[in-house]
Amino acid sequence: MVKLTLIARLDDGLPLAQSPVYLNEENDVSSYYRQQGELILKEISRGAISSPKMSILIDHHCFHYIIGNRVCCITLCESWYPRKLAFFYLQDLLQEFEKVDTKLMESFSMPYTCRRFDYAIENIRRKYLDTRTQANLAKLNSNRKQDLDFVTEEFSKVVSRGQASGMEQTTETNLQPESTLWNSNPLEVIALKWTPITVFMLATMLLLWTGVSLSEYPMPM
């Protein structure tokens, strides 16, 4: 059964819509799984997870996600639910959500503010509750070669790889030279221009001082 569905903006991983809350309570989906789903979406948005679609095993459930042009759709299903059907469900969601105006989608700054789409998720979800309907059986039996076109990983491995990627990015940032005044391009230009002049002036002043000293203190005959 499809238990939880989240749709997030791909640029920053901000969750825009979810399956209605009362459904989550009815299906006893705790906030823990929602947090894990949000974590996966954040990892996808920053490029730590690059696969365009994947199944991620967690406990006795499985997250399935699919990436579109502007959004990422992710759903949590029980482990027995057909993976192929879950991806048909996500594909339907993706096609529906991509009808949303781009400017409207970019205007959201708080999570889960696209509430009007919550019920669109429910309408599509109802079509996939019963896996034995004629429509769903036809989808399961279609293009069996696609059954092999799935990447599956454990949630713990996905999180570990994301943490390792974050540490590498932090290390690269720390190794970059600090941008200070002393290694800036303007200062380098000034130094190249005025250093020869400064050296010349110092040499001239030294010669003048030497001449004055010799005139004041003549060498004895």
Number of domains: 2
- Helical fraction: 40-55%
User: How are the strands of the largest sheet arranged?
Assistant: 2-1-5-4-3-6
- What letter string, H or E per element, gives the SSE order? EEHHEEEHHHHEHH
CATH superfamily of the largest domain: Longin domain
Put simply, the count of helices is: 8
C-alpha-based Rg, rounded: 32 Å
* Name given to the CATH architecture of the largest domain: 2-Layer Sandwich
Find the structural class using helix and strand composition.
Answer: alpha+beta
Overall 3D shape:
elongated
CATH topology of the largest domain: Beta-Lactamase
* Low-pLDDT runs: 179-183
Instruction: Give the strand content.
Output: 15-25%
Using the coordinates above, name the CATH class of the largest domain: Alpha Beta
Give the termini separation.
115 Å
Overall mean pLDDT stands at 80
Largest sheet report: 6 strands, mixed
Strand segment count: 6
Structure description:
It is a single chain. By secondary structure, this protein is of the alpha+beta class. The protein folds into 2 domains: 2-173, 2-Layer Sandwich (Beta-Lactamase); 184-216. 51% of the residues lie in helices and 16% in strands. The protein has 8 helices and 6 strands. The chain has helices at residues 21-26, 31-45, 83-97, 102-107, 118-126, 134-141, 155-175, 185-216, and strands at residues 2-9, 15-18, 53-58, 61-67, 71-78, 152-154. A 6-stranded mixed beta sheet has the order 2-1-5-4-3-6, with helices on both faces. β4 and β5 (71-78) form a beta hairpin. The protein starts with a strand and ends in a 5-residue tail after the last helix. 21% of the residues are buried. Mean pLDDT is 80; it is low at 179-183.
